[in-house]
Amino acid sequence: MKTQYNFCKWAVAALVSVMAGGCDKSAQTPQAPPPAPVTVTQPVEREIIEWDEYQGRMDAVDMVEVRARVTGYLQSVNFKDGAEVKQGDVLFVIDPRPYQAELDRTQADLQQAQTKFELASNDFARSERLLKARAISEEEADSRSKAVRTSVAAIESARASVEMAKLNMEYTRVTAPISGRIGRKLITEGNLVNGDQGQSTLLTTIVSLDPVYCYFDADERAVMKYQRLAREGKGENMRDGKMACELALADETGFPHKGLLDFVDNRVDSATGTLRARGIFPNPERVLQPGFFARVRVPGSAKTSALLIPDQAVGTDQGQKFVLVVDPQNTVEYKIVDLGGMVDGLRVIRGGIHSNDSIIVNGLMSARPGAKVNPSPATAVTASK
Description:
Layout: H1 2-22, H2 25-28, E1 36-41, E2 44-48, E3 51-60, E4 63-67, E5 72-77, E6 84-85, E7 90-94, H3 97-132, H4 138-171, E8 173-175, E9 180-182, E10 192-193, E11 202-207, E12 212-219, H5 220-231, E13 244-249, E14 257-264, E15 274-281, E16 293-299, E17 304-310, E18 315-317, E19 320-326, E20 332-336, E21 338-343, E22 346-351, E23 358-362, E24 373-377
Helix pairs in contact: 3-4
């Protein structure tokens, strides 16, 4: 009996101990996770011009199709495909021998006509003396006078034939009408080329290289905005040739190529609702090539003060743009912002935040509105002026 009593006493003590341990509140309550680490930065405030960006395509200022102007066999090609040529360089030579023979013949005809003129002039001078002595009829004298006029016309006709023969002789040497980059030869030596008008043989093409054009299309709202800025004196008129524009190729950062808007079309395309515009850009290093796609931008506002933040700090929530801000108590706040364009790699914020706000730029996935965070300053945001 004593052994049974001791066992019951031990069992009751063990049960009480287990129940006491199960009721320990410190064991039941989980510890709160530490505040999420984030990096924050303050917006940069500075004067900017907002730019409107478009997709454009490069084109040459001048493009020439080099065609034959006389018919004959191609004797030589004097350029390398794709090379740069200068205005006046001889590109092709068409067999000149038939045209040299024609030039010699017309020069001989001219000399013959001049000789006939001299003879007719002498006859007319004699007829005037004979007519005074009544030794010749008036009809004969008039005939000799008309012969002089006929020989003068024959000389003019022969001279015109000589000039035409000289032109044809010059056309056997096909020269570059402009300076630029030449394409490939479309006809090789030994082939017959046609110089007849309307059927002339295309030999090659040349495009100019410096400067170059970039064409782009601006929508109606943008055009009306530019016109309003010009009326208010806050921007240049698109049609004055003074409006700045900048260009970047597909593999370039920023907009390193500076130019001017030199042409705006005279009507909006009713099918697309856009207006064709063109910028002209210097190209001394031959980086810009006709046919390239490019990004081109033009000033879309007057100079104004704006806040700039890294674009990575901006989030999207059902079509709204927002940023997360850390208040002085290290609590996350959700703020809807009005975005502008990009300036020097930073996003323009038109409204929704203040210049002294601490914007979360890293750690957005772990930050929640109303939660505590552990902020640390990010690398200073800079933007070139």
